[in-house]
Amino acid sequence: MTEWTFLAADEQDTERLGAGLARALPAGSVVGLDGPLGAGKTRLVQGLATTLGARREDVVSPTFVVIHEYAAEKPVYHFDAYRIADDDEFLELGPDEYFASPGITLVEWAERVERCLPRERLAVRVEVADTTSRRFTLTAFGPGYQSVLDSLAADLDGRST
């Protein structure tokens, strides 16, 4: 398990991190996103999905829908586990099919369903540093995701801490 930290000064930096993830993540990737309400999880997903070709206006928080699917170069599957009661309810959504797909699966509020996520994945923790800045701590679970962090750090040179 290896960590890499990125300090985003504003929403544009958050989207830049999302764009970097879009370039670094291979098809079939699973990313767990955690952090408080309003921290920037969906903004990060917007940066990733639009970089892959999704329409920006389509990329919204799936809080009330639970899953959004975005047509893109690599399909993007955007789960929100905030309103999920337990692991069984999450598993009823069929996440294993998404995890096994050639798309990128993003799960907001991943800590709520952590036992249901693949052992190998990327975890992203967002912390509010101040009014506009955010600290993103990315943790690689598995060697494939270590290479994602290496690629991401090289791509976003000068913005890590």
Describe this structure in words.
- With 161 residues, this protein is an alpha/beta fold.
- The protein has one domain: P-loop containing nucleotide triphosphate hydrolases (Rossmann fold, 3-Layer(aba) Sandwich).
- The protein is 30% helix and 26% strand.
- It contains five helices and seven strands.
- Strands 1-7-6-2-5-4-3 form a seven-stranded mixed beta sheet.
- A hairpin with a 5-residue loop joins β3 and β4.
- α1 crosses α2 and α1 crosses α5.
- It is globular.
- The two termini are 18 Å apart.
- The relative contact order is 0.26.
Rg of Cα set: 14 Å
Q: If helices are DSSP runs of H or I spanning 4 or more residues, what is the number of helices?
A: 5
Task: Give a quick account of the main beta sheet: strands, pairing sense, barrel closure.
Answer: 7 strands, mixed
Topology as H/E string? EHEHEEHHEEEH
Low-confidence stretches: none
Assign the CATH topology.
Answer: Rossmann fold
Full CATH superfamily name: P-loop containing nucleotide triphosphate hydrolases
- Overall 3D shape: globular
Note the beta-strand portion: 25-35%
- Overall CATH architecture: 3-Layer(aba) Sandwich
**N→C terminal distance:** 18 Å
Number of strands: 7
CATH class: Alpha Beta
Largest sheet, spatial ordering of strands:
1-7-6-2-5-4-3
Binned, the helix content reads 25-40%
- Tally the structural domains: 1
What structural class should be given to the helix and strand makeup? alpha/beta
- Mean pLDDT comes to 91
